[in-house]
Specification:
Layout lengths: L3 E7 L3 E8 L4 E8 L5 H15 L7 E7 L2 H8 L5 E6 L5 H4 L24 E4 L2 E2 L5 E3 L4 H12 L4 E5 L8 H13 L4 E4 H4 L5 H33 L5 E4 L5 E3 L3 H4 L6 H16 L4 E7 L4 E7 L2 E2 L1 E2 L2 E3 L2 E3 L3 E2 L1 E4 L5 E5 L5 E7 L18 H8 L16 H16 L3 H23 L11 E5 L3 H12 L3 E4 L6 H5 L5 E12 L5 H21 L8 E10 L6 E5 L8 H16 L8 E12 L20 E9 L4 E9 L8 E3 L2 E4 L4 E4 L4 E4 L5 E4 L3
Parallel strand pairs: 1-4, 4-11, 5-6, 5-9, 9-10, 13-23, 23-24, 30-32
Antiparallel strand pairs: 1-2, 2-3, 7-8, 11-12, 13-14, 14-15, 14-20, 16-19, 17-18, 21-22, 24-35, 25-28, 26-27, 26-28, 29-30, 31-34, 32-33, 34-35
Length: 686
């Protein structure tokens, strides 16, 4: 082992790269511009750049982890593989019927999302399994012959098979898969009983179809990227890809689990704040990740990100476990404009990496959040990307003045502050949705700023929400990439087995868990993991009898030690926190059994350094005018070089702390200090 591990995360504006040298115990970081037309170009260039900066060779890399938006972009842009659906006769329109919800409830002009599989690509076959898993109508294999011919004629790349009640009895799906593999050898076949063996046919069908639609695209991308790493950089180690659930998987699993990468990128950030925040002694955290195109909000309690199985992308549901992340269209590149009535709006449209903000000088004409922060003095025109990237402040001022300030009869500074305030209001509202509306009080949490633009806004956001502590980690602008190097390999397994809790046979329950554990061991062994070191986390989805939706309740310890009374108490506690009521006498129903199976990866634990003197004068790099609404004008503000700050240093506000990856804004009445891990801790007063 050479001890060289690389994580890279491709964002809308920049590609972030982190290299950890296990021998030296040091993190190295860099950024390159993303290349939206072909993301692999920016990725290869970025990895080449960090290898050059650290005088490393590609052959020295023994671990490579990637957060990708390929599946995300494919779904949102509608650039999906040509796929088909084969389902039980009478159910070909389940994707179209869905849950019978209007996309915009009160709009007469609402337009439904494009159906993932056009009707001409949906096929029915005679078969039926009942709600007990019993075959009532055998599978008509002869009907598959005509379907196979149609699939070939239509040039279908992948087919999803979703039969009714296949989560209880998958024999018909398996038989259909075997037929297509024998007669259409170039066709990728995916089964709902393998991708999501749970009830609710709409969500199950949507999930397996999403997998079929993105798998060929993600597989080609991963194969091409690994080939480029090998040919251009001599990196021979296989990639690991970040999953939406907060684990990584080897590239060998992409073909069968591609749908698990649809929310890949933001999940790594949540894992990072859970890990590094836990080291620093914080167990209640709200992650606040502002990149070039969006803001991602995550919640961590007891060093674990909140997980949900109610995900969707582009309006298409998928019921796999995912890190619960809320995303809004507010990033550094979000466009600021006036509507026909003269009202100011910011986002969700973004200038992205190409053409980017006006100040980039790459063809952007509409002012953005980045342009406004530059004009307010929060950003340094001479220190973008550590001074590597020249920007044009005059062009930004001109665009805001002409398009925002003059039409609103405001000064340039007030127009820029207006852009900032509109964005701030959107961000505060999104955090309230992620916390207060889910039974959590944000005042009990610390706010973690990361992403390139996170620390520019975080103190203002905390002040609005009554949050007292803001944490800006080391490498905050690249924290998602850093999270890729502390994320464990993880697979999730589930099975629907509905029963009344009090009447459930505990031994039968343990038997179902044992079957899932055996499946997990076989799959991890196939990918060359040491199955003796696997960690199993158990949980149950439960509901009050008669309810339509469930709450996930973890089982601590081994499943053999489970007691139904403990499960009931935990469910009622969760129900009370979420909905403000519970009924301890009401009957509970088990719906789904779940296991998360984890293979731990070596983690780089940063050294806890001793605290030094409070005086931070040695780190001052200059002074510049910054507009603060607390003063209503520009005021001289001390600027610090983060590289020169030491543990124990105190920084009074107002202040700006600069590093190549992010800028930290400390408001006039706030103070900050540096802890032993190099985190900047801002105490918020307001």
């Amino acid at each position: 082992m050479n001890g060289c591990r690389i994580g890279f995360d491709i964002g809308g504006t920049f590609t972030d790269i982190i290299l950890f040298d296990q021998n030296e115990g040091i993190y190295h970081s860099t950024k390159t511009s993303s290349t939206p037309r072909d993301p692999s170009i920016g990725a290869v260039d970025g990895v080449a750049k960090i290898l050059q900066q650290t005088s490393r060779q590609g052959l020295e890399v023994d671990y490579l982890s990637h957060g990708t938006t390929i599946a995300t972009n494919a779904v949102l842009e509608g650039k999906l593989a040509n796929c088909a659906l084969v389902t039980t006769r009478g159910f070909k329109d389940v994707l179209e019927i869905g849950r019978q919800r209007r996309p915009q409830q009160y709009s007469f002009h609402a337009v439904k999302n494009r159906i993932l599989v056009a009707r001409e690509f949906r096929f029915e076959v005679t078969e039926r399994v009942n709600y007990r898993g019993e075959v009532t109508t055998p599978l008509a294999l002869e009907e598959l012959c005509g379907i196979a011919s149609s699939l070939k004629e239509k040039g279908v790349e992948a087919v999803a098979i979703s039969f009714l009640f296949s989560f209880l009895n998958a024999d018909h799906e398996q038989a259909a898969k075997a037929y297509f593999q024998a007669n259409c050898p170039n066709l990728d076949v995916y089964l709902s009983s393998e991708v999501l063996p749970e009830y609710r046919e709409y969500e199950r069908t949507s999930t397996v179809v999403l997998n079929a639609a993105v798998a060929p695209i993600v597989s080609r991308y991963v194969g091409s990227l690994e080939a480029q790493f090998s040919e251009k950089l001599d990196i021979e180690v296989g990639m690991n890809l970040m999953k939406s659930s907060g684990g990584v998987m080897p590239s060998s699993q992409v073909q069968s689990r591609a749908v698990e990468t649809v929310l890949s990128g933001p999940a790594a950030g949540a894992i990072a704040i859970a890990y590094f925040g836990g080291l620093a002694g914080y167990d209640k955290l709200i992650g606040f990740d502002i990149g070039g195109t969006s803001t991602d909000i995550s919640v961590v309690v007891d060093q674990k990100p909140r997980i949900t199985s109610e995900g969707s992308i582009g309006g298409y549901p998928f019921a796999l476990p995912i890190v619960d992340i809320s995303t809004i269209g507010a990033g550094g590149g979000s466009l600021a404009y006036l509507d026909v009535a003269g009202g100011l709006h910011v986002g969700p449209e973004s200038a992205g990496a190409d053409p980017g903000p006006v100040c980039y000088g790459s063809g952007g004409l509409v002012p953005t959040i980045t342009d406004a922060n530059l004009c307010l003095g929060r950003l340094n025109e001479h220190f973008f990307l550590g001074g590597e990237m020249p920007v044009d402040k005059v062009a930004a001022e001109k665009a805001i003045d002409q398009q925002i300030a003059k039409p609103m009869n405001k000064s340039l500074a007030n127009a820029c502050q207006g852009i900032f305030d509109v964005t701030l209001a959107n961000m505060v509202r999104a955090i309230r949705v992620s916390s207060i509306e889910k039974g959590l009080d944000p005042r009990e949490f610390s706010l973690v700023a990361f992403g390139g633009c996170g620390a520019v806004f975080t103190a203002d956001v905390a002040e609005e929400l009554g949050i007292k502590t803001v944490i800006v980690p080391q490498d905050a602008g690249l924290l998602s990439a850093k999270g890729l190097l502390v994320t464990d390999h993880k697979n999730d397994y589930s099975r629907t087995r509905i029963s009344i809790l009090g009447g459930t046979d505990k031994n039968a329950l343990i038997g179902f868990f044992d079957e899932m554990k055996a499946q997990a061991r076989a799959e991890f062994k196939k990918d060359n993991f040491d199955i003796g070191d696997l960690k199993f986390l158990y949980s149950l989805d439960l509901r009050y009898s008669g309810q339509a939706y469930e709450i996930n309740v973890p089982i601590f310890g081994e499943v053999e030690e489970i007691t139904f009374d403990t499960v009931r108490d935990r469910f009622n506690e969760s129900h009370r926190r979420l909905y403000w009521w519970s009924d301890s006498k009401r009957e509970l129903e088990i719906v789904n059994l779940r296991i998360s199976v984890i293979s731990l990866v070596p983690k780089a634990t940063p050294e806890l350094l001793p605290l030094q003197q409070a005086d931070s004068g040695h780190a001052i790099k200059g002074n510049r005018p910054v507009f603060f609404k607390q003063y209503g004008e520009y005021c001289g503000t001390t600027v610090y070089d983060r590289r020169e700050l030491r543990p124990g240093n105190h920084i009074p506000g107002p202040a700006i702390i600069e590093s190549f990856d992010t800028t930290v804004v400390i408001l006039p009445i706030n103070t900050a200090k540096v802890d032993g891990y190099g985190n900047i801790i801002i105490s918020v007063e307001g």
